Amino acid sequence: MPPKRPPLLNAAPDWKPDLSESVILWHGCTMVAKNSIEASGIDLTRCAVDTDFGRGFYTTTLKRQARLWAWDQFYQWQAAHPSGTGNQPVVLQFRVRRYTRTPWGSELDDGLDKLASLGFVRGDYDSEDYWSLVQHCRQSTPADPATGTPEVVHDHKRPTAGWYEMVCGPVAAFWRQRVTMTGADQFSFHTGGTDLLDALVRAGKGKGRGGQGDSKYYRWSVVV
Fold first, then answer.
1. CA end-to-end span of the chain
2. d(CA 112, CA 134)
3. Per residue in 17-63, pLDDT tens?
4. Residue 33 to residues 38, 50, 74, 158, Cα–Cα distance (Å)
5. Average pLDDT value for residue range 114-125
6. Residue 82 CB neighbour total at 10 angstroms
7. Average of per-residue pLDDT values in the chain
8. What pLDDT score was predicted for residue 211?
9. What does 112-146 look like in DSSP terms, one character per residue?
10. Residue of 191, 168, 200 lying closest to 44 (CA atoms)
């Protein structure tokens, strides 16, 4: 008779095959930004330059993290528009394919594997490759019209192209001290990489193939 094993505490859920096909990515922003994305696509020129992986459109696998980003963006908007009304913090949800479907039929069959990507697993103090990129990108400077300081954008220095289309890894909490956030991640989309997300937005809003909106590709909700 085989020995009895004690029950697993906090056992992982049963395997869900669909999780190997796609990943849910969240983005926190304001209603104003959401409307702009839905109307004309992601505009990287509106994105901050002095971020962990450089100017890009940042997403995360954690909805709670995106909610915090949304509030942060909303408070920044309020500070710049003290008497402004009609705006709210929102989170956008993208269902992104991990790999490209074959046979390929449309842009909705494209996956993350098509992107020229850079990924980091560790973000501890000794992760030289991660912190080298973060400190390089973080030292970009936005333009300051008041002083006439021009914008300086540090790209990824990828050979021939300059930018990777997607970069993923930990989130820096204090980049000068090499400290990352516990239990946080980020997927940033750069030149060329945002096309993947724009296709999902069009499909979700009924602007893509077939003209019928499908929320499995893209949806949004107000943060409360």
1. 55
2. 22
3. 777 899 999 999 999 999 999 999 999 999 999 999 999 999 999 99
4. 9, 19, 10, 29
5. 97
6. 6
7. 93
8. 64
9. GGGS-EEE-S--STT-HHHHHHHHHHHT-B--BTT
10. 191
